[in-house]
Amino acid sequence: MAIVTGGGSGIGSAIAQRLQRAGARVVIADIHDHEAQAASWGCEFRRTDCAQPDEVTALCEAAVERFGKLDILVNNAGIAQGALLANSEPARSERFWRLHILGVQTGIREAAKRMTRGGAIVNISSITAVRGFVQWGEYAATKAGIISLTQTAAVEYGPAGIRVNCVAPGIIDTPLAMNEAPDMVARNANVFTLLGRIGRPEELAAVVHFMVSDDASYVTGQTLLVDGGWSAG
Ligand code: NAD
């Protein structure tokens, strides 16, 4: 049984649908109501604000109550807003921290304690975690923290048979990228990626599926950049 946070849109919706098609029972957890959409994909839905630790705990509890076990967590929910560090604001920085750090950290803890027969967790970071980008400092700092949380969690939960990995997307064609980073979208496709285009949510979902599958049974603590080669060029 799998939980996908932020599964109502973009990358998360592609991951949820991919895992569902592969035979997993999937709960989509999202702050916005995507119940009808989730049902049309054969997934369940639970409205959850992942920036609220109590709601993440209740999500994991409810999933186990409903399905009897929890095998997979994809910590995908995210928000984005660019601003120069010169214009950084504590309130905005805190919004990023609450969702990307506290939310992911709580998800790992609450899921892992219920993965009694091992499991797999994938956290979604960003290329901004490993390279500097104008205007993305507040966001990027929390996305870098996700890589760090992934490594620590892999170390601490490895003995329990729980693998924890991270996927760091480049620019992917989703509402978040189109609304919050249109300039980056345009420049990335033409100039920076080695493949000459931005990515599709389904291309992220394929990698996450691999990471949670038995094909990746000896992979843990890793971050895979899925960025059309941007970080390599
Ligand atoms: P999206 O906006 O299409 O989807 C994000 C989903 O998260 C939405 O359904 C939204 O309602 C949900 N969400 C937001 N705040 C939430 C909260 N507090 N609790 C629960 N759900 C919440 O965005 P996306 O592009 O699919 O992003 C998915 C992940 O990928 C994010 O973590 C994002 O930072 C990361 N990412 C995206 C890109 C990209 O180019 N699209 C690049 C790098 C990283």
Task: Report what the structure shows.
The chain is of the alpha/beta class. It has one domain (2-172, 200-226): 3-Layer(aba) Sandwich (Rossmann fold). It has 8 helices and 7 strands, in the order E-H-E-H-E-H-E-H-E-H-E-H-H-H-E. It has a 7-stranded parallel sheet, with helices on both faces. The mean pLDDT is 97. Residues 5-6, 8-12, 30-32, 48-51, 76-80, 99, 124, 126, 169, 171-172, 174-177 line the site of nicotinamide-adenine-dinucleotide (NAD).
**Class of secondary structure makeup:** alpha/beta
**Poorly predicted tracts of residues:** none
CATH arch. level architecture = 3-Layer(aba) Sandwich
* Bound ligands, each once: nicotinamide-adenine-dinucleotide
What is the CATH first-level class name? Alpha Beta
CATH topology: Rossmann fold
List keywords for this structure.
7 strands; alpha/beta; single chain; 233 residues; Rossmann fold; binds nicotinamide-adenine-dinucleotide; 45% helix
